[in-house]
Amino acid sequence: MVDLATLKQVPGVRWGVLFQGAVTSFTDELIGQAGGERIDSLGRALRLLPRKLQDADLRYEEGLVLVRRRRRGDLVVVCERNTDLDQLVPVMESVGALPDDATGGGTSSLAMTLAVPAPGEAISQVLADAGRPTIEKVEPQSVEELLGLFAEFLGPLAKAVARKEAKAREMNLDDLESGQWPGLVDSLADSITDEKKRSQFLARAEKLGA
Fold first, then answer.
1. Count of alpha carbons within 13 angstroms of residue 170, beta-carbon side
2. Across-strand partners of 64?
3. For residues 163 and 173, what is the distance between their CA atoms, to the nearest angstrom?
4. pTM greater than 0.90
5. pLDDT in tens, 143-188
6. Element (H, E) at 174
7. CA–CA distance from 183 to each of 63, 144, 169, 202 (Å)?
8. Residue 78: which residues within 8 A CB-CB, separation 6 or more?
9. Most exposed among 38, 84, 114, 156, judged by the fewest C-beta atoms under 10 Å?
């Protein structure tokens, strides 16, 4: 498997994927179910691109999606909008080149720069969606377990209080992000006035995890 760690040495790079037939290499940020779904989306999009399109620089609201199709494979890198491309592109070329062809096999026959999402640009939309930062979700069962635990300490009004607290913090209990889990636990704990019970709640909630 190709080591893509060199990409992460460039400031502003979020993650990268190299498609080599049946073998796919990717940076650590794409490990897990969400990362696998993102790789599948990218693979489908790349198969729709014309072979003569070797370079594609897709700009969208949150950053850049750079595509370089070379002899070693199809490389996709997602980075911040202010990333120094003069520094990044040579690194991408070295990853996509064969060992005896450090330049990547010549210049591209066609380059493309698009502002995405754009009406009718299905391929661009897939790439743009793939470029957005991964947002891990909390399993609904974990939320229910947390609410059940909260009810042990607060009683029958626990779910109503939990939803009120979540709404005040712009959280959706039916679609909770992993990064919001600690804040939710802390806000529920604040609703428990008894200090001893609050500590017990936090200890048991920590074991639930997200």
1. 1
2. 59, 79
3. 7
4. no
5. 999 999 999 999 999 999 999 999 988 899 998 888 889 899 999 9
6. none
7. 28, 16, 9, 12
8. 13, 14, 15, 16, 63, 64, 65, 66, 130, 131
9. 156
